[in-house]
C-alpha cells in the first residue's frame, strides 16, 4: 500500500512539472484559453500532490500509532477517491466563479 501511495504522489508531481514546463512557453501565455487551462491544471495537480502527501502522513500515523489494529480493506480506494476527487471539486468551483477572472493573466500597464 505504501508503494501505491508513493507512485500516485510521484505521478502527480511529474505531471505538475510537465504542465509547468510546457505551460511556461511563450506561446502558451499569449492565448487566454491555454493560459487558463495551464493554470487550472497546475492548481489541480498541486492540490493532488498535497492530498497524496496527507494520505502518506495518515498511513504513517496509522502504522505507528495503531500498530496492532488492521487497516480497513478499502483504505486505498477511499484515499484515491479523496486525493484525486477533492482537488477536482475545488478547481471546478474556482472555475465556476467567473466574476473574479480566475486563472487569467492580468497584463501590467
TrEMBL record:
Gene Ontology BP annotations: cell surface receptor signaling pathway
Every G-protein coupled receptors family 2 profile domain range: 1-109
Keywords: Membrane, Transmembrane, Transmembrane helix
Major location category of this protein: membrane
Localization terms from the record: Membrane
Gene3D superfamilies xrefs: Rhodopsin 7-helix transmembrane proteins
TM spans (from-to): 5-24, 44-68, 80-99
GO molecular function, one term: G protein-coupled receptor activity
Coiled coil: none
GO cellular component: membrane
Membrane topology designation: Multi-pass membrane protein
Domain of life from the UniProt record: Eukaryota
PANTHER family the record matches: ADHESION G PROTEIN-COUPLED RECEPTOR G7
Protein known as: Adhesion G-protein coupled receptor G2-like
Organism: Octopus vulgaris
Lineage: Eukaryota, Metazoa, Spiralia, Lophotrochozoa, Mollusca
Amino acid at each position: 500500500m505504501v508503494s501505491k501511495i508513493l507512485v500516485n504522489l510521484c505521478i502527480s508531481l511529474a505531471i505538475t512539472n510537465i504542465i509547468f514546463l510546457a505551460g511556461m512557453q511563450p506561446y502558451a501565455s499569449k492565448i487566454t484559453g491555454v493560459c487558463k487551462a495551464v493554470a487550472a491544471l497546475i492548481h489541480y495537480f498541486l492540490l493532488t500532490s498535497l492530498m497524496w502527501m496527507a494520505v502518506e502522513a495518515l498511513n504513517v500515523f496509522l502504522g505507528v500509532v495503531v500498530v496492532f489494529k488492521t487497516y480497513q480493506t478499502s483504505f486505498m480506494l477511499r484515499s484515491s477517491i479523496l486525493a484525486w476527487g477533492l482537488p477536482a471539486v475545488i478547481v471546478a468551483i474556482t472555475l465556476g466563479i467567473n466574476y473574479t477572472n480566475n486563472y487569467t493573466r492580468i497584463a501590467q500597464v
